[in-house]
Structure formats: C-alpha cells, structure tokens
Amino acid sequence: MQKLAIVGGGISGVCLAYLVQDQYDVTLFERQDYLGGNNCSTEVEGGARVPMGVIIYPAKQLFENTHYFANEFDLQEKPARLAHIFCSNGEVKYKSYSGSGHFLRDMKDVAYLNYGFKAETGSHDKRLGDIVSEKKLSKECVDYVLAPFAALYLSVPYASIFELSLSTVAGWWDKYCHPFHLMSRFTYIEGGNHQLIDSFGENTRM
C-alpha cells in the first residue's frame, strides 16, 4: 500500500485521512498537540468542553458534507439563530439586532450586507475600514460582527482582517453567509463540533 502524508490536522486534514485510509497508509502531521483546528475544544475545570473556534455553521448547501458526516457518525444537529453580543473585559460593547436599541442602524447594516456588499468583491484596493468611512456599514457592525466572524472562518487574527483586501472579505461573505437575515439560520452539533473531529479520529487508521 502506498504511503500518504497529510500536512495539517484541521477539519480538512482529518476528513481526507478518513476518506482515503483504505487506499493509502496515512500519516498525518500536525504541529499542535490536538486535532481539529478551529473545530477543537478544550476541557475546563469541572469537565466542561469549551469550543476554541467554530461553534455554529451556516445551514447552506455549501456545508452539505458537514451535515453528511454528522449523520454518518450519528451526531445530533440542532438549528441555531444568530444573536451576537460582543464583550471586552466583562463589559458589553455591542448587541446586534436582538434588543440593540439601534433598529434603524441594524436594518441599514443588514440591507447593505444583503444587497451592496457583494459588489465589493471587485474592490481589490480597498480595506474593510473604507466601507465605514463611506458610511456603507456602521463601525459597530464592522468591529463587532463582520470582523470577528471573518477572522474566525478565515482562520486569521482579528487585526489581520482589516489588512486584507475588501474583495477577499466580501468574497468570503458572499460564499458563506449571504443572504444574511435578522434571524439567520445556523446549525450546531449538540455537545460541540469537536465531536465531529473526535469521530474522524476514532474511525481512521493513521
């Protein structure tokens, strides 16, 4: 049997190892002491598992493989609604949409994310901050919703999001999160998405 080296033990790496284990002698290389990347979790005092990254994922066809493997490993998926609260040093900085007290601001932000942001996929020379200065999105929405969400799913530091071209961020948004509603529907695996990583590991020879 031919040998195959897979570099990176994130969701893509462990999924690939699982899929090709009958055709190859798989060795997976991961620099961390855990698998899963953004889908990992850590155990805290009391035995609870706390997600270190991705908790929910959009209920879109793009994630049909996630749904497929959750079903294959008998993991329970549950619907979730997006309610975003941003805290810093114990202080609530931003509440989005649900009880924010800024209804008109929120409606304008949602309208732009749905109908205007896609046009920015051609804005290679602009940055995220430009749409704030152009008053297309509120600073609160960019700082506390769009940037953290993008950092999580693009696997880059929060500050780096503001250095990426606007076309990159808009392209990610259009692919993964559009259309966006006040009560956007997401999905999560009951008990934590780390269970998907654990299931791949338990069912893979590597």
Question: How would you describe this structure to a colleague?
Answer:
The protein is of the alpha+beta class and 206 residues long. The protein contains eight helices and nine strands. The strands form four sheets. It has a three-stranded antiparallel β-sheet. Strands 1-2 form a two-stranded parallel sheet. A hairpin with a 2-residue loop joins strand 7 and strand 8 (91-95). The longest helix is centred in the last third of the chain and has 16 residues, at 139-154. The two termini are 13 Å apart. 23% of the residues are buried.
Write a brief structural summary:
With 206 residues, the chain is an alpha+beta fold. It is 38% helix and 18% strand.
Number of helices in the DSSP assignment: 8
- Overall pLDDT score: 81
Strand order of the largest sheet: 5-9-6
Give Rg in angstroms: 19 Å
Brief descriptors of the model:
8 helices, 206 residues, elongated, two-stranded parallel ribbon, 3-stranded antiparallel β-sheet, single chain, alpha+beta
Q: Could you give the topology of this structure?
A:
Layout: E1 3-7, H1 11-20, E2 25-29, E3 41-43, E4 49-51, E5 57-58, H2 64-72, E6 77-81, E7 85-88, E8 91-95, H3 103-115, H4 128-133, H5 139-154, H6 158-161, H7 166-176, E9 185-189, H8 194-202
Parallel strand pairs: 1-2
Antiparallel strand pairs: 3-4, 5-9, 6-9, 7-8
